[in-house]
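Loading example: each entry is read as two labelled lines plus one structure line.
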Amino acid sequence: MFKLFNYLRSPIEKGAMIFVVFIVFIALMGSYLAPHDPYEANFKNTLSAPSIDYLFGTDAAGRDVFSRVIYGARLTLATTLFVIAIVAIIGIFVGIISALSGGVIDNLLMRFTDIWLGFPPLILALGFAASFGAGMKAAILALIFTWWPNYARLSRALILETKDKDYILSAKAMGVPNLRIIFSHLIPNAFDVLFVQISLDVAAVILVISGLSFIGVGAQIPLAEWGAMIADGRSASKAWWVVFFPGLAILLTATSFNLIGDVLRRELDPTLSKVKNEKPS
Amino acid sequence: MKNLLELNSVSVRFSPDENDVIDNLSFEIKKGESLGIAGESGSGKTVSMLSILGLMPQAILNGSAKFDGEELIGASNVVLNKIRGKRIGLVLQNPFTALDPMLRIGDQISEGLISEGWSRRNAKNHTINLLDEVGVPSPKERFFDYPHQFSGGMRQRIVIAIALSQDPELLIADEPTTALDVRVQKQVMQLIKKECLDRGMGLVLITHDLGLISNYTDRVLMMYAGKIVEDSPSKKMFENPLHPYSKGLIDCLPNLNVDDQKFLTTIPGNPPQSNDFPNGCRFHPRCSFSNVDCKVIDKHPPLEKYKWGSSGCIHVKELF
């Protein structure tokens, strides 16, 4: 953990790393940290300014914004990780099949991928929302359907590059079965690039989910979701805290994950020298 | 002695409407024999050995290649996987690319054993003994190191350990020393030779270094443009080659004698590509012995027994 800090060059990167650790901690421990129930409405105390008791103030229904931001961290991170995990698994699976089979199957899979790549997530989310109601389900489905093609294309390119390497030939010459070659050689060698893509996509998915919730396609109030909270707070023009704190949470989280993604890209970039701690032999 | 590997008129092409890159290749390797395959780049040395093992997916093969009585050409991957690694080991040319940079070398060596069904513990012990045997110092610690932590010579030892891990009966070494410096070349070749003798293992040494052929093999096949042009015992080939091409290659070897002021001889021209093989003998445009006869014979002259070996040249008598 502390070794990781050696790779962070500027105070901004260190700050981003600290924030990522912090927000993950908040997401995990949220229910113990939140002072109030995030869904408990109190109509006697609506739109009250930040105070000792209500650190970030209260919203139009008198719910504690501080607790809602804390709960929102868990919701946002869990959804994002879920979406990325599904998307990466589907994409890598399609990419590997495409790269290894080649010919007609490769062509069919890649054209199929291109078709999905053409769908904007927003339009698809609107479609899903129209057909079975707006909610997190619509946002998540829209994201999964539109995001996997990126991973399919990326992993196909990576596998194509790796599959003709000498060490793959060597493994085949050893009689290692194909499935084992995929898991012990092809995927590990593609993983550094895929991992950078994943860490950069975390920020992008957070933004898209919040954005969809903001325009009313994704999470619905009273669900404690940052985008939905901002949308909810727009009507109360004088109560800046209802919009400001969830907005700040989105900004800091997305920026931090993006910065960490950049750090990972810099450190794992295959074009940069990997021989940093070579032993003499 | 029994034939370990027997090739019978094997032809290889890379696309149905192209010429054969390997044309009617026939030879056999006896158990424990060490055979050198020599020739210029592009003469089909590597292609012939890799394609019969099914390691060149785009190659179209014809003919028959039997390993210990079992047909390799057209065999399924399942059948081939029982032979690859377990009965035929392969050492690749470049140790810098033949090891997976993301995998600990111990895991790479034991990979073949584990996919054969060995337990992790047994495979690890076997691997550590193997590392010791091929001369990697402190094998217990280095089991956990990654390839980039080794020098070129050490890496080639590891590649050899991988090839030996399943105790094959035949070792195919594809230019095992080309990427190494001269001092390390000798160590690596001596290691290969020692392992072959200790295990009674056959060796196919693919190389363009005639020095290695003379020192480490019993028999040599000279290949030119996808054809075998000479098949002789190695020592005899250097005393008196049976083909003008072999003679040409031997004359190309640099001489360290400083008084000898003559320029290094070369064979004029370049080897032909598979899409424009010359009529008649494929070597005749570059051959100093060629005459009208070499062009009119409608096929490349077949190998014929002559004295101690076989030659694919109609002028073989003029070489004496």
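Chain B has a mean pLDDT of 87.
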